[in-house]
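re: ur question from yesterday

yeah so i grabbed the chain u mentioned. its 37 aa long if i counted rite. heres the sequnce exactly as i have it in my notes:
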Amino acid sequence: AWLQNYRRILVRYDRYSDNFLSFVHLGCMRIMLQRYF
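ran it thru and got these structure tokens back, copy pasting raw so excuse formatting
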């Protein structure tokens, strides 16, 4: 539910799964940093 604000993650535009997974990780890191700091 937290990732629904990130359009790049919500709709997979990337051809390669590695690129998509790295953006998922970046989105999760950003959410966690915003919640704790």
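noticed a couple things. The mean pLDDT is 85. also Residues 2-36 form one domain.
anyway ttyl
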